[in-house]
């Protein structure tokens, strides 16, 4: 079992509150990813779960038992670190067995567990090699193996792929997802890479300034972000934002005026907004619509077209909007530099954020995705 409960967890360093008001329940077998910008407190929270940091406030329980005071080695929790720090003079098998030997585990049992972990991680042919004779990905698999042999109820991963190159990261990401499916164990994974978070997580916990900004399934955070901060963190390219003025805060649609002066009825509840307020319209790169289906239009000029083969990212300048907006187009779109482009907007495909950054609740249904 690996059912974790965090209630009112907080952490201070030298009188500074680093983590605060963390309330979170992680179900047995769930894959949860802590994500957020650098310094938001992801590692601190993970290290508190591991027992490597004291908890200043709140209660942490594993399978109903309080674990605040239980030392790391006595928690049924295993951690895979960013730097895999294998012992260079030991073979792969010895590296994996080391923790079990220290814990005086029976020799036959150690052999069984090492062989089993090697089989799962495809390390069997490498068991007698030394770390210097392994690739980066293989070393990372040994580091995972070292944790796997402990057979913990909860696996913690602290940015385990950040030392690997891009293609290896993708490969290891798939292997970690397969490992989770195969073991069915509870896993908590820390990363600042939102693609890793989106692809691995059953649920994402997005942290900001030591607090939870939003918890939910990856696509819920993508389609129903509760704040501008979440909307901007989740999704690549970053969500487009433009300043608008609220003209009609209606009950199901909110009328706004675009920088071009055109009106648009956005499918959101105008909670807390009044006519005359300045708000932020959010439009994902794929959510612009063809001009003939548009409810409002923006005239833009193409600055740069990034042709990625399967899609083109058009970076566009719009009068009255700072920076550029990005529109995603399928395939190799035919675009000329500086050409005029009409960006079509539809109220169902936009987000609206108030002056405090809070999202106005969207009044749209997306099949299979919870609000
Ligand atoms: N031992 C410590 N003493 C004092 N402050 C610390 C200590 N460890 C971390 N902090 C501070 O706590 C905050 C959160 O750090 P943490 O490492 O948890 O962030 P993070 O989200 O994991 O960042 P990153 O993605 O850069 O690793 C930071 O401001 C950091 O400087």
Automatic annotation (TrEMBL):
rRNA-binding keyword on record: no
Coiled-coil segments on the chain, per record: none
GO terms of molecular function: ABC-type maltose transporter activity; ATP binding; ATP hydrolysis activity
Residue ranges annotated for the ABC transporter domain, each copy included: 4-234
Stored CDD domains: ABC_MalK_N
InterPro entries, A to Z: AAA+_ATPase (IPR003593), ABC_transporter-like_ATP-bd (IPR003439), ABC_transporter-like_CS (IPR017871), ABC_transpr_MalK-like (IPR015855), ABC_transpr_MalK/UgpC-like (IPR047641), Mo/tungstate-bd_C_term_dom (IPR008995), NA-bd_OB-fold (IPR012340), P-loop_NTPase (IPR027417)
Gene Ontology CC: one annotated term: ATP-binding cassette (ABC) transporter complex, substrate-binding subunit-containing
Regions crossing the membrane: none
Alphabetically ordered keywords of this record: ATP-binding, Nucleotide-binding, Sugar transport, Transport
Name of the molecule in the record: Maltose/maltodextrin transport ATP-binding protein MalK
Species: Halomonas beimenensis
Gene name of the encoded protein: malK
């Amino acid at each position: 079992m690996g059912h974790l409960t965090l209630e009112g967890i907080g952490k201070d360093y030298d009188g500074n509150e680093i983590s605060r008001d963390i309330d979170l329940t992680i179900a047995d077998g769930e894959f949860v990813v802590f994500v957020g910008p650098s310094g938001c407190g992801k590692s601190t929270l993970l290290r508190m779960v591991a027992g490597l940091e004291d908890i200043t406030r709140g209660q942490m329980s594993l399978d109903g038992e309080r674990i605040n005071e239980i030392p790391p080695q006595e928690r049924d929790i295993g951690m895979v670190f960013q730097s895999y720090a294998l012992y260079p003079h030991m073979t792969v098998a010895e590296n994996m067995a080391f923790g079990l030997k220290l814990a005086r585990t029976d020799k036959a049992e150690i052999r069984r567990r090492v062989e089993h972990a090697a089989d799962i991680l495809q390390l069997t042919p490498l068991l007698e090699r030394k770390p210097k004779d392994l690739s980066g990905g293989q070393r990372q698999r040994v580091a995972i193996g070292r944790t796997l042999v402990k057979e913990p109820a909860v696996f913690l991963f602290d940015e385990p792929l950040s030392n690997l190159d891009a293609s290896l990261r993708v490969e290891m990401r798939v292997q970690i997802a397969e490992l989770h499916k195969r073991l069915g164990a509870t896993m908590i994974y820390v990363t600042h890479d939102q693609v890793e978070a989106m692809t691995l997580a059953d649920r994402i916990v997005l942290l900001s300034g030591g607090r939870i900004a939003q918890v939910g399934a990856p696509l819920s955070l993508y389609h129903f972000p509760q704040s501008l901060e979440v909307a901007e963190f989740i999704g690549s390219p970053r969500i487009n934002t433009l300043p608008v003025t609220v003209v009609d805060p209606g009950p199901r649609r909110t009328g706004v005026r675009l920088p071009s002066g055109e009106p648009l009825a956005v499918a959101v509840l105008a909670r807390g907004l009044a006519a005359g307020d300045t708000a932020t319209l959010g439009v994902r790169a794929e959510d612009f619509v063809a001009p003939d289906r548009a409810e409002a239009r923006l005239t833009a000029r193409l600055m740069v077209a990034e042709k990625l083969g399967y899609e083109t990212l058009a970076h566009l300048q719009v009068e009255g909007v700072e920076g550029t907006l990005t529109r995603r187009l399928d395939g190799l779109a035919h675009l000329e530099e500086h050409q005029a482009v009409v960006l079509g907007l539809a109220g169902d495909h936009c987000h609206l954020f108030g002056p405090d950054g809070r999202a106005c609740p969207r009044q749209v249904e997306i099949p299979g995705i919870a609000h």
